[in-house]
Amino acid sequence: MTTKAKTHLTSFTGTIAATMVRGVAVMVKNVWKAWQARHDAAVLLEFDDHMLADIGLTRTDVMSAFATPHKMSERLEALARERRHASWAAARERIVEHAAHIGSIGGRA
Fold first, then answer.
1. Are 40 and 51 in contact (CB under 8 A)?
2. Is the pTM above the cut of 0.70?
3. Which end of the chain offers a freer environment for a tag, N or C, measured as fewer CB atoms within 10 Å?
4. pLDDT tens per residue across span 57-109
C-alpha cells in the first residue's frame, strides 16, 4: 500500500470514528435529558394538589407527561398555559356577567 493510500485510509477511518463519537455523544445527551425530565416530573408528583394547582397543573397532568418522556417539560408548560388561559377567560366572563347584573339593578332604582 502506498503512502498516499495509507493517508487516505487513515483520514477516512478518522472521519468514521469522529462521526461515531458524535453519534454516541448525541445519544448520551438525549438519554441524559430524558432522565432529567423524568426526574423533574417525579419531583412534581411529590407536590400536594394545592401546590400543583398553584403552578397550573394537576396530578393527572404530571402523570400524562410521562407518556411523552422526550417532551415532558413542553407538555407540562402547555397544559399549565391552557389552564391559565381558560381560568382568565372564565374570570372575564364572570366580571362581564357581574357588571351586567349590577347594571340591571342600577336601572331599576
1. no
2. no
3. C
4. 999 988 888 877 667 888 888 889 998 899 899 999 999 999 888 888 765 54
Residues 69 and 38: beta-carbon distance below 8 Å = yes
Distances (CA, A) of 87 to 5, 7, 81, 82, 93: 70, 67, 10, 9, 10
Q: Which residue in this structure is represented by grid cell 340591571? A: 104
Q: How far is CA 101 from the centre of its chain?
A: 41
The residue count of the chain comes to: 109
Q: pLDDT tens across 25-53, in order?
A: 888 888 888 788 778 788 888 999 999 99
Whole-angstrom distance, CA of residue 97 vs CA of residue 103: 10
